[in-house]
């Protein structure tokens, strides 16, 4: 199965994007304010890069990254351990009929950007790019 990009793609409606952004903002607030009663989680600084919601609004996947990228697996475990409490907070804030099931995954956006930069820095790629530029002139 091909891995999809975090950006909006086919099948993502305005509604799913709006709900995803509302969940992202609220989850960020919850984590910043330490509203979850777990000392492991409140000790971490976690960034919520994006929340992708399924078309039926039943599942919301939050793409997270701890500050500095350290203790990523521990952050995922803490979030997964507290997903019921997080979902409860979401239900109160969202005002939609059914609160989506919360899932958590590491946000690999920065890793993919670094890999792309490394690829473009490769001398063979640079040579091909310059060759294309010369052909256009």
From TrEMBL:
One of its GO terms (biological process) is maturation of SSU-rRNA. GO terms for molecular function: ribosomal small subunit binding. PROSITE patterns: RBFA. Pfam families: RBFA. It is found in: Cytoplasm. It comes from the Bacteria. One of its GO terms (cellular component) is cytosol. Keywords: Cytoplasm, Ribosome biogenesis. InterPro entries: KH_dom-like_a/b (IPR015946), RbfA (IPR000238), RbfA_dom_sf (IPR023799), Ribosome-bd_factorA_CS (IPR020053). Monomer. Binds 30S ribosomal subunits, but not 50S ribosomal subunits or 70S ribosomes. One of several proteins that assist in the late maturation steps of the functional core of the 30S ribosomal subunit. Associates with free 30S ribosomal subunits (but not with 30S subunits that are part of 70S ribosomes or polysomes). Required for efficient processing of 16S rRNA. May interact with the 5'-terminal helix region of 16S rRNA. HAMAP family: RbfA (MF_00003). Belongs to the RbfA family. This is Ribosome-binding factor A. It comes from Celeribacter halophilus. The gene is rbfA.
């Amino acid at each position: 199965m091909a891995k999809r990009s975090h950006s909006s793609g086919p099948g993502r409606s305005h509604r799913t994007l709006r709900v995803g952004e509302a969940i992202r903002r609220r989850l960020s607030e919850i984590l910043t304010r330490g509203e979850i009663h777990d000392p492991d989680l409140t000790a971490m600084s976690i960034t919520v890069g994006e929340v992708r919601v399924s078309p039926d609004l039943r599942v919301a996947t939050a793409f997270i990254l701890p500050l500095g990228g350290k203790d990523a697996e521990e952050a995922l475990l803490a979030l997964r351990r507290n997903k019921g409490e997080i979902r409860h907070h979401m239900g109160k804030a969202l005002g939609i009929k059914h609160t989506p099931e919360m899932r958590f995954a590491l946000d690999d956006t920065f890793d993919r950007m670094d890999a792309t930069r490394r690829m473009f820095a490769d001398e063979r790629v640079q040579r091909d790019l310059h060759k294309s530029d010369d052909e256009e002139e």
